[in-house]
Amino acid sequence: MIRRLRRLPGYVFLSVFALFSVFPLYFMVVSATNSSADVLDSRLLPGTQLLENFAKLFAEQDVVSAMVNSFLIAVGTTVLSLLLCSIAGYGFEVFHSRAKDAVLAILLLAMMIPFAATMIPLFELFANAGLVNSLIAVIVPTIATPFLILLFRQATRSFPHEIIEAARIDGVSEVGIFARIYMPTMRSTYAAAAVITFMTAWNNFLWPRVILINNDVQTMPLLISNLSAGYVTDYGVLMLAVLLASLPTMVIFLVLQRAFAAGITGAIK
Amino acid sequence: MNRNTMRRFVAVGVALPLALSLGACSSAGGDSAGGGDGDETLTVWAWDPAFNIFALEEAEKIYQQDHPDFKLEIVETAWDDLQPKLTTLAQSREYGELPDIFLMQNNAFQKNVLNYPDLFSEVSGDAVDFSEFPTSVAAYSTVDDVNYGVPFDSGTAITALRTDVLEQAGYTIDDFTDITWSQFITQGEDVLAKTGQPLLSGQAGSSDMIMMILQSAGASLFDEDGNPTIVDNDALLAAIDVYTQLVESGIFVEVNSWDEYIGTFVNGSVAGTINGTWIVGSITGAEDQAGLWAVTNLPKLEGVDGATNYSANGGSSWAISSNADVDLATDFLAATFAGSTELYDTILPTSGAVANWIPAGDSDVYAEPNAFFGGQAIFADVVKFGAEVPSNNTGAYYYEGRDAVSAAITQIMGGADPDEALAEAQANVEFAME
């Protein structure tokens, strides 16, 4: 009993903290069911406007196409960047040399350059290639990120190199070692990287806004931006769109939650 | 991950880029802006489906009466996204991606024309009669006597007040018409004392209110040559003084965000607002307050040369791009936004888009009583106010000037000396201009 009481302050602290983190989510869900005036009135109870908000949102905006585009971009970016960055991270660690360390250092320096500085040359590049309004142009500049390469390189440090030696003696090709031994072993790192990449790609805003000029290729964040651009904003509809846009990242995170935590802390099972 | 999953994983990894590049080919093949190829389609960038885009669609219908093959391709683009797009296109010199027509905030017009002249085509004065627009409005899109835009929605400022609250304190809307700021403050304090309700609200750190007061005296943050005049600017000092008094007396409630600002009058915690006439769209969202509002002009500054009861905030104009089918775009704008009472009659009741085009104001639709505003023909009044708004210089660094003044106001409200804070603001703007 006393032990429980001693824990009480901790629980109170955690509960308050949890309340603060969960409240915005709760407000988003509840507001999606309320009218604009109710949202402005900070109504905290579920309302009856959900269907009306749905109808308005789908009448005003091409939500399906935006969802599909966002999905293609997020999945495409995730698959390609996991493949590319894990190969790079693996290479930097397993085929280690001083020259490669120097290359990695340069890559890390590239993390310091803000995207806004490279956006205009990048736009020129894609415009010359005739790729304005293409999903390819959204995906390609984001698939190789120094952060993911570093994540994979650090994770590879804890990958036992003896396994690689043993596989080589057994006659497994280098590609085979990577695809059949390394990849399955590192699945928690892949999961963590997948969650991060998917979320970043799904929420990416500035670059898609610039390169995707026509609205038939717009993504969910762009659609949401349009919903709040008018003189009068329908907050119920806006909250519903935000809710719809948040669902995929929530699902991905919940599904990969355990592996994500393990991957970030660098555990190998 | 077993071997099968692995295979699928690799297969998807290979197939997806292929699929996407095919998709890319099809969408990249879509047509961009016209460019005089005999095709009667114009591409337009604009925001707000209930307002600007609705107006475009109605204009399209009107133009189609004489041009059956005419079509508009409207790309909904929020203003906050439109500006970075224009900047990117201008800096990468990819003008081929521009639409035929784009909508531009009036306050940003000068800056864009001066910084990126190659984005624009001139709007010929032969096709569009600019004398049919208020001088102050046409001035936003005029640089060196050349017009680059056709004015659309009016940013004419209004004072909207809750008549029921005024009544409780023993006032009517007439007591707030053609008055000075000191009268407004005295009466506002009285209303607050008797009813507990402040009259105004706004975003803390926003300079909207100050800029409206400033323009009401025809003053600006820049002189005619574009040099900043933030220091020793009597109108600015008077405006800041009024703002400080409003906040300190509790008549003006400062909130943290735009959404909160809208919330203050929609949920009735303040009894009025001063803003561009487009704010009417948000006011009428509070259906339970129907019949309880009235609209009048702004209070004016005392002891400042050129002070009036009229001002503006916001509003936007149509620009014709350098990549446009200029003849078609000009003819379309001249026949609709600068020449069709029918258009303005259609869009006013549904969207509340008040015309800057003076002939539209004579229409019966503008004179119709508005039930939400207790039967007042508010739009006819707004058009009358619009003709009285003094012109002011916006210039290439208008936004830098506004930002610097906003920062100064935050300091002044925190107790800093106004002269010092404004001197710093001036230095910051001069630094940005170097």
List the helices and strands and how they pair.
The complex is a heterodimer of chains A (269) and B (434).
Chain A: H1 2-31, H2 36-40, H3 50-60, H4 63-94, H5 98-110, H6 115-128, H7 135-139, H8 146-157, H9 161-169, H10 174-185, H11 187-203, H12 206-211, H13 220-227, H14 235-255, H15 257-265
Chain B: H1 3-28, E1 41-46, H2 52-64, E2 71-76, H3 79-91, E3 101-105, H4 106-115, H5 135-138, E4 142-143, E5 146-147, E6 149-151, E7 157-162, H6 163-168, H7 181-195, E8 200-203, H8 208-216, H9 234-248, E9 252-255, H10 258-266, E10 272-276, H11 280-283, E11 293-296, E12 316-320, H12 326-335, H13 341-351, H14 364-367, H15 378-388, H16 398-413, H17 418-433
Parallel strand pairs in B: 1-2, 1-3, 8-9
Antiparallel strand pairs in B: 3-12, 4-5, 6-12, 7-10, 7-11
In N-to-C order, the SSE pattern of chain B is: HEHEHEHHEEEEHHEHHEHEHEEHHHHHH
**Proportion of helical residues of chain A:** over 70%
**CATH homolog superfamily of the largest domain in chain B:** Periplasmic binding protein-like II
Distance between the termini of chain B: 59 Å
Beta-strand fraction estimate of chain A:
under 5%
Residue-averaged pLDDT of chain A, rounded?
90
Total strands of chain B: the figure is 12
Signal peptide (chain B): 1-26
Keywords (chain B): Signal
InterPro entries (chain B): Bact_solute-bd_prot1, SBP
Pfam families (chain B): SBP_bac_8 (PF13416)
Short description:
The complex is a heterodimer of chains A (269) and B (434). Chain A has 269 residues and is mainly alpha-helical.
